[in-house]
UniProtKB/TrEMBL annotation:
Record-given protein name: Alanine racemase
Family of this protein: Belongs to the alanine racemase family.
Domain Alanine racemase C-terminal intervals: 208-334
Cofactor: pyridoxal 5'-phosphate
Organism, as annotated: Candidatus Termititenax persephonae
UniProt KW Glycoprotein keyword: no
Class in the EC hierarchy, top level: isomerase
Name of the gene encoding the protein in the UniProt record: alr
Length: 335
């Protein structure tokens, strides 16, 4: 992770701040541990998606600024203030409620929707919205941001619209501290649009995770015998089958049934039969024994299984693969 952070820093201006995105438990890696590690690397602002995530980080002792990346229901305004989070704002009713809840003041970032069509303020309404915020003296507009839906030409179109928004905003708030539009994948594509901050998530986390288990049992089955639910795999000859302590409740998608592979003793073995809630099975050889380490994601003996490989096999993205590793899987952090 430190190497990934350093690689991004090499692409950024020395004045560009990094917001470490640790939502969804830092994409499944463990938000508090990741935030602490990134803090050691000089990251001093973090982004989350839910108030519960803010609460967990504060309870864990993280005091750095936390940007809540979306606007919750107005009834939670007081909780945002209590937790000392920076609020995202794009609706007048929420701004009013937040002002009432924060007599001592609170920092906010205004979200503009330049084409994602998910959340945010329409660009044409930005100037009027910012002028409307001027009556709330306790709301400090610290930032302005947008979210790109695509790279390439579509991303450039969004950035052009956002540039107009930035110009309009700075006529009203000349000392706007943070303007941000780029996430991990966009930094390399649009280096000219770094502004004051970039939001880094998946780009920090790729290649840092290994998902491992152990062999529970090894047995030989005969021709015509099936394994697991639905009998979707039937032996055509005597086969050694290893039962592995990992299943879909741990984050191993059932879509990998009869398709995925595991690493054992530096060799690759195919999964067989339906992946169960707590276990999966693989066709192995005589070198495999009970207690052997099994790599589900990661490297072993010159072989590697990446989250992207699993994503390709299950028609998804690597984000979903690592976010899907469940809470019951223990996390160990190695330097």
């Amino acid at each position: 992770m430190a190497a990934n952070l350093a690689a991004y820093r090499a692409q950024l201006s020395g004045q560009t701040a990094i917001l470490g995105v640790v939502k969804a438990d830092a994409y499944g890696l463990g938000a508090l541990a990741v935030a602490r590690k990134l803090s050691q690397g000089g990251v001093n602002y973090f982004g989350v998606a839910a108030l519960r995530e803010v609460e967990e980080l504060r309870q864990g002792g993280l005091t750095a600024p936390l940007l809540l990346l979306s606007q919750p229901d107005p009834q939670y305004a007081a909780k945002i203030v209590e937790l000392g989070a920076t609020a995202t704002v794009y609706e007048s009713a929420f701004a009013e409620q937040l002002s009432r809840a924060a007599p001592g003041g609170i920092k906010i970032h205004v979200k503009v929707d330049t084409g994602m069509n998910r959340i945010g303020l329409p660009p044409g309404e930005l100037a009027g919205f910012l002028r409307g915020l001027e009556k709330y003296k306790n709301l400090e507009v610290e930032g302005l941001f947008t979210h790109l839906a695509c790279l390439g030409a579509a991303g450039r179109k969004q950035l052009a619209e956002f540039a107009d928004c930035v110009s309009a905003a700075k006529k009203i708030i000349p000392n706007l501290k943070y303007v941000h539009a780029l996430s991990s994948l966009a930094v390399g594509e649009f280096p000219e649009a770094q502004y004051d901050m970039v939001r880094l998530g998946i780009g920090l986390y790729r290649g840092v995770l290994a998902l491992k288990s152990r062999v529970m049992l090894v047995k030989t089955i005969q021709p015509g015998e099936a394994v697991s639910y639905g009998a979707t795999f039937v032996a055509d000859k005597p086969l050694r089958i290893a039962t592995i302590s990992a299943g879909y409740a741990d984050g191993l998608s059932r879509l990998l049934s009869n398709r995925g592979r595991v690493l054992l003793n530096g060799r690759s073995y195919k999964l067989c039969g339906q992946i169960c809630m707590d276990m999966c099975l693989a066709v192995v050889d005589d070198t495999v024994a009970v207690g052997n380490e099994v790599v589900l994601i990661g490297a072993q003996g010159g072989q590697e299984i990446t989250a992207q490989e699993l994503a390709d096999l299950t028609d998804t993205i690597d984000y979903e693969i690592i976010c899907g590793i469940s809470k019951r899987v223990p996390r160990f952090y190695l330097e």
